[in-house]
Amino acid sequence: MLPIKSRWISPTKLGSNLRWGITGGLWVAAFYCIWVTGLYVVRGPEPFERNGVTFLSTIFTYLAIGIVGGGLVGLLRPFSGERFGAYGIGVLVGLLGAFALTILIAGSPARWELAEWGTIPFVAVGGGWAIGSELRKRRRDVP
Known about the structure:
Distance between the termini: 22 Å
Low-confidence stretches: none
Radius of gyration: 17 Å
Number of strands: 0
Strand content: under 5%
Number of domains: 1
Number of helices: 5
Helix content: over 70%
Structural class: mainly alpha
Order of helices and strands: HHHHH
Shape: globular
Mean pLDDT: 85
């Protein structure tokens, strides 16, 4: 048996948590999509081409991270009531985001150099801290 209360793993609660997480992830993705759209309108494709990506691949990456990362946060939401759980979820989602963004910019991990591999832990921990802090703050909303 899982060490969490059964009301958290009921299909209704699970679906509600999943919806909550994906919605939150898409709101964050929307913010980044608006930001890069503004960048594209003002500066054109040059900032994207300089990094070896396209505007659309950047938009799709942000949306994918929002959906998958948000879904992961939603599924793991029952564990966010404790400090360790909230920050653990944050680091896990931060790691997912760091890998996705590095793949977008640097391509396949098989071609990564030390710089790309070395950046991942910093982005994961930094993003994880921010996500975990927000989860702890929002956890007060859950009955």
